[in-house]
Write a structure and sequence with these properties.
This protein has about 525 residues and is of the alpha/beta class. The chain is about 35% helix and about 25% strand.
């Protein structure tokens, strides 16, 4: 679909770190974008600026996201406005079917020289300076982004460190003690829009403010294969020998009948493994690494020890299965920036160890998550968040029955699907869904997805390959028109599986108005 040359969105900031965050927003949507300097490109008609601009861009539309209280105060003075500071819950529709929210600090500009453009309840999200092509956001998109990305680290609680080091393994704590310690009957109340996916609210504000300021459609690239609107990955962490020898095959039998291929994450040295059993799992779906001993100590190890452990796990599973292993899932969903870097050094291409939001992390002993339901690139790896609460959290922490867990998972997955995200199921063969009496409930869980033609069901490895390829898409100016192409492939065109979309308008009552491209 040809796009006018001036559809490039310029990204600008006085700080390189802020400019990088703006680039990540733009690259999430895959909108035509480029950084600008003091002499803007003639092909840029709209500039998104983090912080107070120290220069003018005559003839250009500009969207300004304040960078702190002092910065917001100076911006208000520039335009003869007042500004008040507070904390608000911003809640906006993505479409008629779904809303996204974030609890954040706000900068509320007021005065006769501005008019509201996007509002959330009593809070103005985007305003326009009268008589100018200048727009002001009431939130700091860069600071909020960086705060959420701090979720890459789940800092171990001192009590967890003490118990794990003292006993030599988290698993030596009796199971009934662990189950009693990790209980939160009210935990479902913590699974809300503003906890599971506040990043999606920030991303929506970024795109919506550009659409409203430009007054014309903004092209972006669909998240999944043409004709699909969201993705599902079914994953299993096989923690015990009984789970491997019994529960796994019950789950596999149900999946086989529904033609679902899943990812099986196996520890390499916790219980005896045979070539035959591991090879069968690799053929049944996809094999992933799950550390060596699953003792809870991986995140406590130094960097080289982390590299050695995850390398040992991968090479051992590859030897047993005869298949390549490039995906990782950490025991207890432990994660850190250092662990991600260790995985990259050990030859992994993707990881799925970070929850979008977990009711109770056994490592930090509190609720925790990354706040997005989409894959993202971290230290060269594709991170695929565990976007749905794992079965352990629902069955053991909250105390739901399997049928109640299915209802909760369906409810949350419907919301994630309406955002276009990835639904990552984590079902342990060792727990209730692996028992014979619960196979009908497990089948009911999966059927909700298999019957939905909008759902793209993939393994974690397939999602990582797809997201890596999408990440390589770039917009270029050719013959006076914008064309999207994949870096390293034939220029000026996309693979037929990708879908170009056009964000035509945004309404704070109904959401984005989107049209399909060619």
């Amino acid at each position: 679909m040809p796009v006018p040359a001036d559809s490039f969105v310029g990204l600008a900031s006085n700080q390189n770190e802020a400019l990088e965050v703006l680039r990540r927003y733009a690259e999430f949507w895959k909108i035509p974008n480029k950084p600008v300097n003091r002499i803007p490109s003639p092909h840029v008609d709209t500039i998104f600026w983090s912080g107070r601009p120290e220069q003018g861009f005559d003839g250009k539309r500009i969207v300004i996201s304040p960078s702190g209280i002092e910065d917001a105060t100076r911006i208000a003075k520039d335009y003869d406005l007042t500004v008040t500071f507070g904390t608000s819950k911003i809640s906006l529709p993505v479409s008629g079917d779904a809303r996204v929210s974030i609890q954040t600090h706000t900068y509320e500009f007021a005065g006769s020289g501005q008019e509201s453009v996007i509002v959330s309840g009593d809070a103005t999200v985007l305003s326009k300076i009268r008589g100018k092509d200048t727009y002001l956001l009431s939130i700091d998109l860069v600071k909020n982004y960086n705060q959420l990305m701090n979720g890459l680290d789940d800092t171990p609680h001192p009590r967890f460190r003490f118990v794990t080091k003292l006993r030599g393994s988290y698993n030596l704590i009796p199971k009934f003690v662990r189950n009693r310690a990790f209980r939160d009957p009210d935990g479902l109340e913590k699974l809300r829009e503003e906890t599971i996916a506040p990043m999606e609210c920030l991303r929506l504000i970024f795109l919506a403010s550009i659409v409203k300021s430009t007054g014309h459609g903004i092209p972006f690239v669909g998240f999944w294969r043409r004709g699909k609107e969201y993705a599902l990955a079914v994953t299993h962490d096989v923690e015990t020998r009984d789970g491997l020898e019994n529960g796994s095959w019950r789950l596999y039998d149900t999946e086989r009948k529904l033609q679902v291929r899943s990812t099986w994450n196996v520890p390499s040295d916790r219980y005896p493994l045979s070539n035959d059993m591991v090879s069968k799992l690799a053929v049944a779906g996809e094999l992933g690494a799950h550390d060596t001993r699953h003792d809870g100590r991986l995140v406590l190890a130094n960097f080289e020890a982390k590299v050695n452990r995850v390398t040992e796990c991968r090479t051992s599973l590859e030897h047993l299965s005869g298949k390549e292993v490039r995906g990782f899932r950490s025991p207890l969903l432990q994660h850190s920036v250092e662990l991600v870097e260790a995985l990259g050094k050990a030859g992994y291409t993707h990881d799925s160890s970070i929850p979008s939001w977990e009711i109770l992390s056994p490592t930090s002993l509190g609720p925790h998550g990354i706040g997005t339901v989409f894959p993202f690139i971290a230290s060269g790896l594709v991170e695929i968040p565990v976007s749905l609460p794992q079965d352990h959290q629902l069955l053991r922490v909250v105390g739901l029955k399997p049928a109640e867990s299915v209802e909760s998972l369906h409810r949350l997955s419907h919301w994630i699907s309406s955002l276009g995200g990835v639904c990552v199921l984590l079902v342990h063969p060792d727990y209730d869904f692996g028992f014979p009496e619960n196979q009908d409930e497990y089948r009911r869980l999966l059927e909700d997805f298999t019957r939905d033609p909008r759902c793209d069901i993939m393994t974690l490895g397939e999602i990582a390959k797809w997201w890596t390829r999408r990440d390589r898409i770039a917009w270029k100016l050719e013959g006076g028109q914008m064309q999207a192409s994949i870096d390293g492939e034939q220029p000026g065109r996309l693979d037929h599986e990708f879908q170009i979309m056009l964000a035509i308008d945004y309404d704070d009552k109904t959401g984005l108005r989107i049209e399909l491209g060619s």
